[in-house]
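ERR on first pass: missing label on line 2. Operator R.T. fixed the label and resubmitted. Corrected input:
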Amino acid sequence: MRLLGASEACRTAPSRLAGTLGWPANSSASRFSTAIRTDAGASSRKLEGRRPRREPVELIDAPPPSDRGQCSEPETALERKHRKAAYIASAVCPCMLEWPWVLAQAGRGKPSLLNDRKNEHLDVVLSGRGRSSGQTGFDEIAFEHAALPELDMDDIDLSTTFVGKRINAPFLVSSMTGGPARALAINQNLAEACNALGLPLAIGSQRIAIESRENAGLGQELRRLAPDIPLLANFGAAQLNLGFGLAEAERAVEMIGADALIIHLNPLQEAVQPEGNRNWRGLLGRIETLAGALHVPIIAKEVGAGISGALARRLVDVGVQIIDVAGSGGTSWALVEAERAQSPEQAAIARAFADWGVPTATAIADVRRACPEAVVIGSGGVRDGIDAAKAIWLGANLVGQAAGVLAAATQSAEAVTSHFNVLVQQLRIACFCTGSANLAALKQASLQNRNVSLR
Ligand SMILES: Cc1cc2nc3c(=O)[nH]c(=O)nc-3n(C[C@H](O)[C@H](O)[C@H](O)COP(=O)(O)O)c2cc1C
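pass 2 clean. output:
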């Protein structure tokens, strides 16, 4: 594949972009239009109307480091204004993309740099090098086995409600990258599978889509693929100090017809990233303003270092309704960033924080104690349905997984469906063998090691 330089890549007009991605350039009735229709209630039903298998597509190969250098400085407010103006100009009149000034601004490379970074994240996580060797805390818990459950396993009810919608099991696909074109196939596979399974889907950061108008598969097509389930929009809290506000939040939500907006908190990742955003002053107030104005609930979420009970309380007090703890013990963004560090010094700084954070099990229990009224999502290093059962016992309403489903998501919707069928069945067996007829009963299940102090 021919390498596109940063400015050339950023010059890609929407129509050309669509063509590169394999969609008809002028049509939202793209290949997404083969969207399957299923009953949200049919967790075991096979996917119907299958599309031919897609191969992940590449839009922009990573440019060599020298090419990337020009993009690695944090963007100033003035540069951002110029770039926005250039994008607006080029959207109004694509021929303006031939003007040197428009090109220079639009091609300042932010979207391209973000795409490179997101591509590298995918590679590191898929290779298994981003997983912390630390502990989630789930191994400290063992359920007491019920040798006479007095239940019909098939009658166990795993359904629950989330953001006002009924879902078939308490699982959530946690946010994964929405940047590179490769994520297009990943998001389609996840959307189809989640809709068939009746599980919610959180998408990765929409920052690129909001800033560049290149939605890379994060548009209404996603909602058409997943009409029945909760879809969650996403961008980083740090963006609230860089010009994002209510308008951008509404755009993120509207872009996919989302039921809620995730604001992700990733201070560690930003701190160890050379190009990270490190001004986090005043963000709680900005989150409060957003929560007071946005028409959908706000979810505050970490990305693998956990949220403490005390912080969760402050977030809920300013209007956040849902907390996703995304605790430590699973994907470590310090490790992921160490893998893509440009110097031994950067790598050493990041690697020291490989196991940093609040372990997932501790975070769930702590947040539940501090915020009895909040919806809590337990995530971070969830391996299987038994970890999920423990998360629910600790106080989670839902259990999220990201890295664990990524490999399946790069393959097909069927692979994702089969991945979650395994997790759901494991959770069902955990309920059966603790004598729990539903999720409420599972929360009351007895433990073997009664001295566990987590809850
Ligand atoms: C490839 C990849 C990309 C991710 N991108 C995002 C993102 O854009 N926004 C976000 O909130 N979290 C993002 N995350 C973090 C996850 O949603 C999750 O919180 C974290 O990986 C911990 O869960 P895990 O141990 O199951 O992977 C990403 C995770 C992975 C693996």
